Amino acid sequence: MKPIVEIAKTAGIEEQDLELYGKFKAKLSDELWEKVKDRPDGKLILVTAMNPNPAGAGKTLTTIGLSQSLNALGKKTIAALREPSLGPCMGIKGGATGSGQAQILPADEINLHFTGDIHAITSAHNLLAAMIDNHIFQGNPRRLNPKKIVWKRAMDMNDRALRNIVVGLGDGNGMSREDGFMITTASEIMAILCLSENLSDLRERLNNIIIGYDFDDVPVRANEIHAVEAMCVLLKEAIKPNLVQTIEGTPVLIHGGPFANIAHGCSSVIGTKTALKLADYVVTEAGFGADLGAEKFFDIKCRKAGLTPAAAVVVITVRALKYNGGVKVADLAVENLEALERGFANVRRHIENLQKFGVPAVVAINHFTTDTQEEVDAVIALCQQLGAEAALSYVWAEGSKGGIELAEKVARAAEKPSTFRFLYEEDLSIQQKMETVVKEIYRGSGVVFSPSALKTIQKIEEMGLSHLPVCMAKTPYSFTDRADILGAPTDFTISVSEVRVSAGAGFIVALTGSLVTMPGLPRKPAAESLYVDGDGHIVGLS
Which positions are tagged coiled coil (predicted)? Predict the structure, then answer.
């Protein structure tokens, strides 16, 4: 690794605008934005993917490798990524810093505690939770109805045992009531931090958080129990983007980490906008498949922040195609052209969906050593039939050299005139917005709302918040709300079990199917394979 001061210089950042966290990590100062805000924006490239398979797809890897390859072509490029969560690191996914010759460094530190941003968000979230119960204990002047408190607690770990709990047990410990935990990446504060323009915007959004309802069914907000200023104190440093580097020395801004299956799945607006002022190209990603991350990137992040993406990259793998074509995970290394062609229906739909947003798309085929030449040729031919540009990506093995063809095609696509548009307009009803996403992106036939979801929608409309965009919380593995239905199904319904309003973040969350906001650990968690060797090196975090 190069000293982060040197990496900053390549991005045009002076040392005085860095707040150093050791030799290889730094936060950007508040003053930097004032120096660069009047510069023209670079071109914004979104990296998304087909629906993932349990063996992985390489979207973050491709984002990192593409940024390196664009730099190798002489185009000044910065990557803008999300911060990894400890939950997935210890659960199924492991780390989120890429691998091979396309990774960000220092990987272990980024995957674990990094600069403390997620811990700060967890603390701010739980401070608000503690002040809610204290408000009730100390006389409840705002008349909060304990049965209508909607603000749960949070932690950055997968722990299904905490989904539903009872607090206030024992004498003198407050009122006993049902409560629960969500993972920090699902916290509204995470979404707020990622959508805020600055500390002042952050404060205003925190003020608007709805924590529950009083006995007259009037919403109670965070500012009414005097929690917001202390929350800002805890988040003062966390709102600053973090600067690190790729293995080849490309600058990377890592900031924020909302999941795309239960939140909006994009890194921070502050990080993205800063990168756009510093570079000719900014390569960012959105979580999971394009049905989740890309749709939310366009309809929530770009809408709220006034961003216009120049191009999109759809990451696919031969393995993921075969998985969506019905092949079991254990058999993904075996050649199967028939399953590959069946699974390509999934990619076709994602490409068609991106075209609905007016964004030119390039297909990146993330190459695995188990891919046969016949399979690769078949995938390229299928892309050509769609009229889609496709390029093999060898960035894991070769770094920037392995992504030159992809970078050239992405750069050409980004030069085309932008026709970017949103999927729906704000004046549609809440139900119409959800139905539009289901019908246009998932290709379902409609939405089934639970009675409680309909009641919440009515309440949101009464509060005058129906103009907000919607954030669909759904399984990443399928276009449906069931993880076992793969490929490109049609004529299905999406069940919305619960609706929540994130008034501070500025969107409405629809929980579909059996999705929960606190994941559990798998039968064999990744944590079981983690250890520190005799030389003090962390092993198994990848």
Answer: none
Q: What residue type is 138 in one-letter code?
A: Q
Strands 242-246 and 102-105: antiparallel
In three-state secondary structure terms, 324 is helix
Number of CB atoms found within 10 A of residue 206's CB: 25
Centroid of chain to Cα 48:
11
Contact 74, 309 (CB under 8 A): no
Side-chain-side CA neighbours of residue 541 (13 Å): 25
Question: CB of 313 within 8 A of CB of 48?
Answer: yes
Instruction: Read off the tokens for 35.
Output: 């120096």
Give the C-alpha separation, 202 to 229, whole Å: 11
C-alpha 253/C-alpha 242 separation (Å) is 5
CA 489/CA 343 separation, integer angstroms? 11
Please confirm whether the linkage preceding 106 is cis (ω < 30° from 0): yes
Using DSSP, state whether 502 is helix, strand or coil.
Answer: strand
- Show pLDDT as tens, one digit a residue, over the chain (542 residues): 999 999 999 999 999 999 999 999 999 999 999 999 999 999 999 999 999 888 778 999 999 999 999 999 999 999 999 999 999 899 987 788 999 999 999 999 999 999 999 999 999 999 999 999 999 999 999 999 999 999 999 999 999 999 999 999 999 999 999 999 999 999 999 999 999 999 999 999 999 999 999 999 999 999 999 999 999 999 999 999 999 999 999 999 999 999 999 999 999 999 999 999 999 999 999 999 999 999 999 999 999 999 999 999 999 999 999 999 999 999 999 999 999 999 999 999 999 999 999 999 999 999 999 999 999 999 999 999 998 999 999 999 999 999 999 999 999 999 998 899 999 999 999 999 999 999 999 999 999 999 999 999 999 999 999 999 999 999 999 999 999 999 999 999 999 999 999 999 999 999 999 999 999 999 999 999 999 999 999 998 87
CA distance 222 to 239: 19
Q: Which amino acid is at 318?
A: V
**CA triple 423-429-430, angle to 5 deg:** 80
Residue where the block lists tokens 């019908």 = 439
Query: Using an 8 Å Cβ cutoff, are 304 and 506 in contact?
Result: yes
Q: How many CB atoms sit inside 10 A of residue 164's CB?
A: 13
Q: What is the pTM of this model?
A: 0.96
CB atoms within 10 A of CB 14: 13
> How many C-beta neighbours within 10 Å does residue 200 have?
10
Written as six digits, the tokens of 432 are 């119409």
| Residue 494 near residue 448 (C-beta atoms within 8 A) | yes
Q: How far apart are CA 535 and CA 530, in angstroms?
A: 15
How far is 329 from 12, CA to CA, in rounded Å? 45
